[in-house]
Amino acid sequence: MDCTLQLVADELQPVVPLATCGVAHTLLAYLSSLLAESVNAAETLSPGKLECMFLFALAWAVGGGLLPGDQDKLNAHLQGLSPLVPEDDTSSSIFDFCVTKQADFVSWS
């Protein structure tokens, strides 16, 4: 998460200021929501599924306050961190996908 916050500080211009504690709080809130059903069912998720949920939560916690051009830069950064960030043949980014309860990325459309 540190390198992602550093990217925002150095290269991106959020529409609203991002405090590290605010981003961390938002990330944990998103992640808690995504994991709630699995936790309640005492279900063990694979590391890959947990990573997908973390990436989605991180993207929105950090990138929700970015304009589309900066969201594209954040997406490229996340793709460099993990092969699980969704990619397809178009110009779509992680912001064009939602993550299911099974931790699969599916297009919003």
Query: H/E element string?
Result: HHHHEE
The helicity comes to 55-70%
Strand content: 5-15%
Number of helices: 4
Largest sheet: 2 strands, antiparallel
Keywords:
two-stranded antiparallel ribbon; 109 residues; mainly alpha
Report on this structure:
The protein has helices spanning 2-11, 20-40, 47-63, 68-81; strands spanning 97-99, 105-107. With 109 residues, it is mostly helical. A two-stranded antiparallel ribbon has the order 1-2. β1 (97-99) and β2 (105-107) form a beta hairpin. α2 (20-40) runs antiparallel to α3 (47-63). It is globular, with a radius of gyration of 14 Å. The protein starts with a helix and ends with a strand. The relative contact order is 0.17.
List the helices and strands and how they pair.
Blueprint (H helix, E strand, L loop, with lengths): L1 H10 L8 H21 L6 H17 L4 H14 L15 E3 L5 E3 L2
Antiparallel strand pairs: 1-2
